[in-house]
Structure formats: C-alpha cells, structure tokens
Amino acid sequence: MKFNFFAFLLLIGIAMSTTSCAKKALAVLQTELDNANADLSKKDAVIKDYLDKLSACNQNLKRLEGELKTAESNVNNRADQIQDLKDQVADARKLRDKQLTQVGDLTVLSQTANANIGETLQQLERKDRYINLIQAAKTKADSINLALAVNLKSVLRDGIEDRDVDIKVDKTVVLINLSDKMLYTSGSATITPRAGEVLQKIATIIQSRPEFEVMVEGYTDNQPIKNSCIEDNWDLSVKRSTSVVRALQKNYGVDPNRLIAAGRGEYNALADNSTVEGRSTNRRTRIIIMPKLDQFYDLLNPNKVPK
C-alpha cells in the first residue's frame, strides 16, 4: 500500500513534469507560430507591394508600347513628308529648267519682235488713218443727210398737210413717209394728180444729189384685197411702189439706174391694224434716199485708204 502511494506520487510528479514541459513546448510553438504569422504577414505585404509594382510596370509597358506606335507613325509621316519635299524639289528643278528654256525662247522671239516693231507701228498708223477716214465720212454723211432732210421739209411744206408727209433722218438715210390717200386712189396703185405735185418736188431734190440712190417701198394694212388687177396685199404694195418709181423716171426725169422698187405688203406695220387710225397709218409709201452701196464698199476697203 505504501508502494502504491509512492508510485502514485511518482506518476503525479512525472505527469506534472510532463505537463510543464508540454506547456513550455506549447509556448515555444505558439511563439514560433506567432513569429511565422508575423513573418507571413510581412511576406504578404512584400508580395502585395511587388504585385502593385508589377501592375504599374504593366501599365507603364502599355504606355510605352503606345508611345512607340505613335513614334513609329510619326517616323513614317516624316518619311512621307521628306519624300514629298524631295518630289517638290525635283518639280521645282524641272520648272526652273523649263523657265530657263522659255527665257531663251523669249529672247529669240523678242529679237524677232523688235525687228517687226517698225512695220507694226506703220500698220497701226494706217489703221488710225482709216478710222479717221471712216469717222470723217460718217460726219460728212450725217451733215449731208441733215441738210437734205431740212431741204425736203422746206420744199414740201407749202400746200401739204403735215400728217400726209413725214421726213426724218435714220442713221445713214433720209426717210420720206407718204400717206396712201395722198398718193393713190382708194384700193389701187393709180397715182392721184395731187401726188404728182409732191413727187415733182421730191424728184427735184433727188436730181440735185446724183450720189444718192432712191428706194421706194409700198406698205398696206392687213385688210385682204383681191380683184381682177390685184392678187393680194403683196401685189398691191409692189404695184404702188412701181407706180411711184415709174412716175419719177418718166414724168420727172430721175435716172432709173438710181431707182429701186420694193413691196412690203401688210408687214412691218407702224400701228395696230385693229383701228381705223392704225390701218390708215400703215397704208403708206416710203421713199428712202441713201448713199450708193459701192461708195460704202470703197469706204470699207483698206486698200483704198490714202497713203
């Protein structure tokens, strides 16, 4: 019994000793675990720092790659610009060479032009004389026509109503409009005795101007006419102008080589044919006193300009 008590105490001592050792070992292990956890936390912080640095490096790498692409694009653009400049320089050289050639050609041309300056000036001088001649001839023609018109108005004024005769100057000709009621019997081409007096006065003026030709134009209104002697208004206008021309030649001695007969029918009307007054105005005979055409042809011929 005494043996068991000592054994029990021994076991208790052993157990207590073992427990104390275990506690110490456990405390050591706990300390090591705490140290390991602390060290692991530090390692995690280091790893996180490295991961952040890696992310920053990746972003920087992407930025650098973008900058590299931009730089490569700029290099390509610069290369294109350099090539364009080279092309422009080549074109400028070609243009310079062409201009130098043109300058040489112009030098040759200017020498030829200088040789022809005298002749050119002479041609201009001849043209100036020609223009002055034309202007002088026109001035002279205008003066003659004005004097002729004034003379006709003075001669025809006595005994003739103003509304039966209209005299005016139009450009290079003198126009005498005579009403049909004064010249012809109604609806015919027969000249009245009263018309003879007027035509005689006109013939006197015509004969005093042998350098002029005389055209007689017949006009009608638009009222249709047809009988045994007259086919239509065309026919009537021609017959009336022919009657006047024939009278100037046979009765008053005007040279027939200076006379022209023409019929205009109902066309080229001066007034509206829908009224009595308009139709009366349109029924007329017009005598045109004008310079001979060959005089104008001579005037327009540069070969006939005085030297």
Describe the structure.
The protein has 307 residues and is an alpha+beta fold. Among the domains are: 75-110; 135-303, OmpA-like domain (60s Ribosomal Protein L30, Chain: A). The chain is 67% helix and 11% strand. It has helices at residues 2-156, 180-183, 193-207, 233-250, 276-282, 293-299; strands spanning 165-170, 173-179, 212-218, 259-263, 284-291. A five-stranded mixed beta sheet has the order 1-2-5-3-4. The longest helix has 155 residues, at 2-156.
What is the CATH C-level name of one domain? Alpha Beta
User: What is the helix content?
Assistant: 55-70%
CATH superfamily of one domain: OmpA-like domain
Q: What's the rounded overall pLDDT mean?
A: 78
Question: Which parts are unreliable, with pLDDT below 50 for 5 consecutive residues or more?
Answer: none
- The proportion of residues in beta strands is 5-15%
Main pleated sheet: 5 strands, mixed
Write the SSE topology.
Blueprint: H1 2-156, E1 165-170, E2 173-179, H2 180-183, H3 193-207, E3 212-218, H4 233-250, E4 259-263, H5 276-282, E5 284-291, H6 293-299
Helix pairs in contact: 1-3
Give a quick rundown of the structure:
With 307 residues, the chain is of the alpha+beta class. It contains six helices and five strands.
Characteristics:
67% helix, 6 helices, rod-shaped, 307 residues, 60s Ribosomal Protein L30, Chain: A, alpha+beta
